[in-house]
Amino acid sequence: MPVVVLDLFFCRPFEYLILLTIFCNCVALAIYTPHACMDSNRLNHYLEKTEYLFLVIFMIECIMKIIAYGFLFHPGAYLRSGWNFLDFVIVIIGLKARNQFVTVQQGLFLANERNKTWLIQLLTQKMASEGIETRVSTGDCDTYIVRSRLEKAISHPVVFITGQDVDLVVLLIALAPPESNIYFMKSGKRKVEDKLFTTRKLQKELSFP
What we know:
Blueprint: H1 2-9, H2 12-31, H3 42-69, H4 82-98, H5 106-110, H6 113-129, H7 141-155, E1 160-163, H8 166-175, E2 183-186, E3 195-198, H9 199-205
Parallel strand pairs: 1-2
Antiparallel strand pairs: 2-3
Helix pairs in contact: 1-3, 2-3, 3-4, 7-8, 8-9
């Protein structure tokens, strides 16, 4: 088996394939354009996909050399060559990088408008597939949330709003008709428990008409 692999490894077409792969990989790295905040473009997406092809070819070359020369424990073994050792390290790093998720701070990711739009579309599609109605606000979110729930309260006897923003409570008290009774649940954090309010009770306590 090692003899067959050596014959294949030293044949000219295989050598040309490896050299062509190295050249194409260098070109791909040269024309790849990094963008801030995880942004990208169509060309970068194509280049990222070709990286998988390059990695597979280099990994096959690495495996063939190990079969032909042996791994480490005898003279002429694969890892006893400095160039082979460098190739091996590069392949391992490439495999590890492909299995890791890029993590960034939430604020940094959402600071990019395209990232934000993509995330909203993704969540909207996911919720729609689960039968959940979604609406996207282009103005003041708090006002939009309260007004949309007030519309629902006309035809639904029980309406809930959940959130942590105090502005939602203030808007509900000011805008909710006296005959409506909308529930607002302020979700707690850590040791703080959830709290449930109703517009009718809050308006009565604050002497709203």
